[in-house]
Amino acid sequence: MKVRFGRSRGRVLAVAALAAIVASTVPGAAPASAATGSDGSGLADAITSFVTSTLSGVAQATDGGAARSEHWGVITRNTIGSPVAALRNGPYGSYGGTGDASEPPYGTGSLGIEVADNSTSQSPGAEKVDFGNEVDFYGDSVLDLEQVGFHVFQTSENVSNGGPTNLPGIRFEIDPNVGTGQSDNYSVLVWQPDAVPVASLNRWSPYLDATTSGTWYLTGGETSCTQGTPCTFTGLKQSLDDGGNAPTILTASISKGRDHLWVGAVDGLRINDDIYDFEAGGVNARRVGRG
């Protein structure tokens, strides 16, 4: 005997089957139920709504509740020469390495960085690269920065090439809004990390907290926090808080150059409550405390 179902009946069965699969595989998913019209459309619509809302919740849970993942890349106008800033797998430490420090702190990938010290026709001949976000931090207050830092893969070769502080840093292009008339609308806020411990060479460093270590300065002679007389994080924020309009962020980036040859990687960039996990397939934002 051949059995034929009408289009509405077929839709009910197909959607019900999908709902059953979702309910059996998604933790906390409850069975759908609804009144059924004479053609079965009520049940089909109810199950469709159930599946849509459940899958939406799964997507949000996977994302970790964070945003700002899609606008990351090389900031071309701030890049000199032919450096590399590429999302990659690893690195997994030097041969024989074991333990947490032998693998990226988040996921399986990182931001690989390579800059040369004498490969351009400019003076100096060193390369420079900024890998960052020119969209999502625009307009945020500098004074609202509370947590900043990252993990770095530093090698002994990098130390030989430029000393123990030969490391990438963090740059925020900002509108400083300081001084009479506040007509100077551009400066770069730079964090230079301290040297990583010798025990952390050729492997992943612990989290380098930019709010409690390293030094900060502003380009363009803004405030007293200059490259020659850098400040602590607290001192820098105090220097920008002059009672006028709040200083605002234009861009945020990880930066290296123009100084010494460096080859390594960065992962787990933290800006306030978001940690940016660099993976070969893209940048994943992780909300602190939510995975």
Specify the overall morphology: globular
CATH classification class of the largest domain: Mainly Beta
Q: Estimate nothing, just give the exact number of structural domains.
A: 2
What order do the SSEs take from the amino end to the carboxyl end, as H and E?
HHEEEEEHEEEEEHEEEE
Computed structural class = alpha+beta
Profile the largest sheet.
8 strands, antiparallel
Total strand segments: 14
Number of helices: 4
Poorly predicted runs of 5 or more residues:
1-16, 21-38, 46-67
Give the rounded overall mean pLDDT. 84
Q: Bin the helical content.
A: 10-25%
What is the strand content? 25-35%
Radius of gyration: 25 Å
CATH topology of the largest domain: Jelly Rolls
Give a verbal description of the structure.
The chain is built from four helices and 14 strands. By secondary structure, the protein is α+β, with helices and mostly antiparallel strands. A hairpin with a 2-residue loop joins strand 13 and strand 14. It is globular. Mean pLDDT is 84; it is low at 1-16, 21-38 and 46-67.
In short:
With 291 residues, the chain is of the alpha+beta class.
Features:
291 residues; alpha+beta; Jelly Rolls; 2 domains; 8-stranded antiparallel sheet; 27% strand
Layout: helices, strands, pairs:
Elements: H1 7-25, H2 41-63, E1 72-74, E2 84-89, E3 109-115, E4 129-133, E5 148-154, H3 156-162, E6 169-175, E7 187-192, E8 203-204, E9 208-209, E10 215-218, H4 233-240, E11 248-256, E12 262-271, E13 274-279, E14 282-287
Helix pairs in contact: 1-2
